[in-house]
Amino acid sequence: MPATSALRRTFAVIAALPLLTLAACGYGSQADKDDTAKVAAGAKKTDGLDSVRIGYFGNLTHATALVGFQKGYFQKELGATEVTPAIFNAGPSEIEALNSGSIDIGWIGPSPAINGYTKSDGTNLKIIGGSASGGVKLVVDPKKIKSLKDVKGKKIATPQLGNTQDVAFLNWAAEQGWKVDAQSGKGDVTVVRTDNKITPDAYKAGSVDGAWVPEPTASKLVAEGGKVLLDEASLWPDKKFVITNIIVRQAFLKEHPKAVEAVLKASVEANKWINANPDEAKAAANKQLGSDSGKELPADVLDPAWKSIQFTDDPLAATLDTEAEHAVKAGLLEKPDLKGIYDLTILNKVLKGEGESTVGDAGLGS
């Protein structure tokens, strides 16, 4: 279904925002490969491909990808096909890279996935798996905000107009009975769209009174004296909601299903290892963050951030549908037709092969 003019304006504003990539090298910066990513002797190329390009964010909510690269899971499953990482700071830039063919597969939040799917009238991407749930908090200055009702009249940062956390905060504010213009961010609460990298500085400078943000930004704010006023997980049934999906270009899925299967197998292996070895996994994810950005997270940020994220192969499809409804209510999206956004066929094949339970698409499958 085509987007409304409001959604088009949203895309225009998002496109105008600076995409602060880690290095100026195209759509996303190239990460350094860890020395564990070795090609086994005698390995063959998967689907005849020279390389598979995988995008992700430098966030702990993308730890499946971080661990996948750090522990060499992707390279192991792809054999002699080189795995090429690309790091992004914004969902729209990753969608643009997917659309242009600069990446093949990506870890991304639900709102960019929904927007990318609807903007292309369902012709470009598919969600092929889940990765993580949770890891989003409302952190505030305890001197200015002592209770949820005190948020009214304050300045709250979200990462970007129309992004997953922005939609979640606008929906929560509406449920409090507060009116906020989604486009301008002005109203009973002032929404300040601020890149996660500079939100801690904005908080320290007093430019914002709090922020609705993912990890590790939330824990960085706590380390600066902020207080967690609300964990978004508390607003969802079973305290689970999708924060990170795995997407693929439809053309790539059609032409290279074996490569997609290899990446999904690596993802399932990574999540299994993460959940069985949380402390080692936390260290591995942090090491990859350090390799990608040049700086690892300190323990007072890493430890609380890690505890708030659940890693799961289940895409939690019903919650994605609910998040789309929230965007509609906020005026950022016309009611979308999400039928066909999921193709979990290969994921469920991998899960069956691992003796794991299969997952559902909430009626939104191909």
Summarize the structure.
The chain is an alpha/beta fold. The chain has 14 helices and twelve strands.
Helical fraction? 25-40%
What is the tally of beta strands? 12
Shape: globular
- Please report the number of helical segments: 14
Average of pLDDT: 90
**Structural class by helix and strand composition:** alpha/beta
Order of neighbouring strands in the sheet with most strands? 1-3-2-4-11-5-12
Descriptive account of the structure:
By secondary structure, the protein is α/β, with parallel strands linked by helices. Helix content is 40%, strand content 17%. The protein is built from 14 helices and twelve strands. It has helices spanning 5-16, 63-70, 73-78, 91-100, 110-119, 164-175, 199-205, 217-223, 250-255, 257-276, 278-293, 299-307, 317-329, 345-353, and strands spanning 29-30, 51-57, 82-88, 105-108, 125-134, 136-140, 155-158, 190-193, 210-214, 227-231, 242-249, 309-311. It has a seven-stranded mixed β-sheet, with helices on both faces. The chain has a five-stranded mixed β-sheet with strand order 8-7-9-6-10, with helices on both faces. Helix 6 crosses helix 13 (317-329), helix 10 packs across helix 11 and helix 10 (257-276) packs across helix 14 (345-353). The longest helix is centred in the last third of the chain and has 20 residues, at 257-276. The chain starts with a helix and ends in a 13-residue tail after the last helix.
